[in-house]
Write a structure and sequence with these properties.
By secondary structure, the protein is mostly helical. The chain has helices at about 1-30, 35-60, 65-90, 105-115, 115-145, 150-185. α2 (about 35-60) runs parallel beside α4.
Length: about 180
């Protein structure tokens, strides 16, 4: 009788322990999942960041105006830093970020890669103005309504830089348009 009771007790503890491990593993998996909106933000931010870095490098090679080259260098540095921070957060959450651009972002890079000189300068700066306006909206939404605290924090910390980029893009765009008009006169 005692042998049977002992086996039942050992079996009960084994089942209880197994169940506890299963619940703990399930909880960890559930905590690492992101909401649909958070997942979308991660992927959009990753794609946008990759594009900004590639376009920044392109601007340093193809731009004719020194301010555009400087802007490109700043984009490469700042967005490269944000990309690294996003990659770390994603890795901590078990998310694999893309290493290559999707079709939408690649087509923008390809379009600008075909241009050079003043034409490149104008098109690149227009792209930077519109892109940063869209980025600011996405990052504001994530900072305000995101579910994941790490992504909310990253979005909130990145917003001032994005707003500064927009102001710089707008002023650089105006400056090169003014330089183009002065050359025509």
């Amino acid at each position: 009788m005692f042998k049977f009771a002992g086996k039942v007790l050992v079996l009960s503890y084994t089942l209880l322990f197994s169940a506890a491990i299963g619940v703990a593993a399930e909880t960890k998996t559930d905590n690492s999942k992101l909401s649909k909106a958070d997942s979308q933000f991660v992927m959009e931010a990753a794609q946008g960041g990759l594009m900004e870095v590639q376009l920044g490098k392109l601007a340093q090679e193809k731009a004719s105006h020194e301010k555009v080259k400087e802007f490109g260098k700043r984009m490469e540095q700042d967005h490269g830093k944000t990309n690294s921070e996003l990659k770390k957060i994603a890795a901590d959450k078990g998310i694999q970020l893309p290493d290559n651009l999707d079709k939408k972002h690649k087509s923008k890079v390809d379009k600008l890669a075909k241009l050079s000189g003043a034409n490149f300068d104008r098109q690149y700066m227009q792209e930077m103005v519109s892109d940063h306006k869209a980025d600011i909206k996405k990052f504001e939404r994530q900072a305000d309504k995101g579910k994941d605290p790490d992504l909310q924090k990253l979005a909130g910390q990145t917003l001032p830089t994005l707003k500064e980029h927009l102001q710089l893009a707008e002023s650089t765009s105006r400056e090169i348009k003014g330089a183009g008009k002065a050359q025509k006169n």
